[in-house]
Amino acid sequence: MTIAIDIIGTNLGSGTKTYNINLCNELNSLNLNSNSNIIIFICRSYLRQIKKIKNKKIKYIIKPNYLSISIFRLFWMQFILPFELKLLGVKKIYSPMNFVPIISKLLNIKIILCLHTNLPWIYFDFLPGSRIKNFIVKKFMEISIYACDLLIVNSNFAKKEIIKALQLQKKNIKVVHLGINKIFFLQKNNKKIKNFNYNQKYILSVLSCVKYHNIINVLKAFSLLSENNNLKFVLVLQVLDKNYFFEIKRFIKNNYLENKVDILNDVSLYELPELYKKAKVYVFSSYCEVFGYTSLEAMTQQTPVAISNRSALPEINKNAVKFFDPDDIQSILNSIESILSSKNLRKRLINKGNNLLKEYDSYKSVRNTINLIENLN
Description:
40% helix, Rossmann fold, 377 residues, six-stranded parallel sheet
């Protein structure tokens, strides 16, 4: 049986891209069923970030980088990929990019979809870009969900939320928790950002610049926190919503925080561990997550976490973090202050984080996903 995996996707840093790279790296070491072979469709730019291929049962089909542009990717996925799959004798296609090649269903190819966001149905107004484009994307995602033979989601919360939003009670839906990239566990990985002062006292957030990440509320809490100390706030941003980014910049300027807030762009995966490691607190203020990687990444570097109590974040982080209400500035402030001021709390959160990390093994996550695909009738 030949299984195809389509990870033709954007080059922008995101949780989905992290998932795709983890998937490919872990597939190399999997023991597949004796009758299973895997074909992976991938852009050349992605391939550079994947470890040397070891598994002879896995074949990569390399596509040009222009397919990372959404309009080209969509056309290729819907009108070319299904026929490539048929010619290659593919029986099942796994699409971990929120969309599926719908025509494949007409060609008797089983479709498995991994959904990495519920945002279009929960916080549609917070999506970056034009409303027309976002509406089209939302509808296309819905069609993909209805068309797939198996839907994989990242948390029990995500499953309940999407069932309620789209009335999917009869849909074949499975939960597979994600795993942490092994790069965060490598002791030798200490690549540093040029001209960044790691000796300064700072709190850290690593996130996309989008409204549902609620960045300005954290800045409001930080402005109160930093009045009487030399603490800095380091924001590692992937700017997806330019208007919101300018709003953040205005807030920083209007509140005289230019010397207190550092905004970093284009930080590589290999530079993140050291950045997490030196932070006094990691803060994540999102309204809408179906899993959330970065809090776990911070835990790998022994950094205590203050985090929003919304969406899937309580399920994933359990009791290893300090929760706050993302709409309550005082709640955010109290959570950060309590971690900064209490050595006992810091130690307790770090110990609980170390235990929690054992649950999010990337090999186990990929193994469970492939098992579901192989066993789908």
